[in-house]
Structures are given as C-alpha cells and as structure tokens.
Amino acid sequence: MKKAQTVTQVFVFLFALIVTSAVLLLGYNMISGLMQNQQKVDIVMFEKELSIIKEVSNEYGSLKNLDLLLPSGFSEMCFIDLREEGSTGKSIVDNSWDSKVKKDIFLIPGGGVSFYSNATLTFDNANYLCVKASGGKVKIAVEGKGGYALIKERP
Question: What are the beta bridge partners of residue 151?
Fold first, then answer.
C-alpha cells in the first residue's frame, strides 16, 4: 500500500466520521423539537377539554364525569377558587394565588402550565382541590350550580 493511499483513507475516514456525526446531531435536534411541539399541541388540546367546565357551570344540576389525560411530564392537577385566599403547599400555585393572577387550574410539577377556566370554581371542604393522576389521567366530577362549578375528585 502506498503512502498516498494511506493518507487518502485517513481523510475519507475522518470525512465519513464528520458527516455521520452531523447527521446524528441534526437528527437528534429534529426529534427533540418534534417532541417539544407535540407537548405544546397536547397542552392546547387539554385546554380545549377544560372548556366543558364553563359549559357545565351554567347548567344548574348538570353533572359531568371527566377523565382528563394529562400532557406528558405532569402528574397532578390543582384547581383554586379565585374568590378566596389560601394555600395549597405548592409554591407555584400559591405564588399565583397570592399575586391575584387570573389562573385557576394548574398542572404539576413545574406549574409553568396554568389555565383560566372562565368559570367560578368551588370545592366541598376547601378553597382548592389538587388531584393526582392515576395512569396519566385525572378523574373529576364537575357539577353545574348555575353560575359556578363544584369540582370533586372521583375514585
């Protein structure tokens, strides 16, 4: 084997290594971006599911059992009564509550995702309700009270 062939083989190997690394890096970035976009879509779809709370709140005596599939990365959902003051023990929810931010539904952990139900929310024995997901789903019952919604955890 000639010296020129050896040098050429080294350059071909290095070029192939660089091209392979670039393809892997770009592929990883594309897949990562797709996953982030999918989570954003899941959150938007989840917010649309929550619109049933407003509908039920206006219908006195109506009852809807909801099985809400939480977007990936979340394991709990908290609801608060914006007319009251209180504490859930979850800092992101409590900070929002104390600051009078018009958000009454929070996804936990993180709490960076919150919504406004556009309805008055009430609960049985407190001014908030936090429900842990089971199998990725939060099971709640929403009862219309004619102007507000009573939200309860379902087994």
Answer: 142
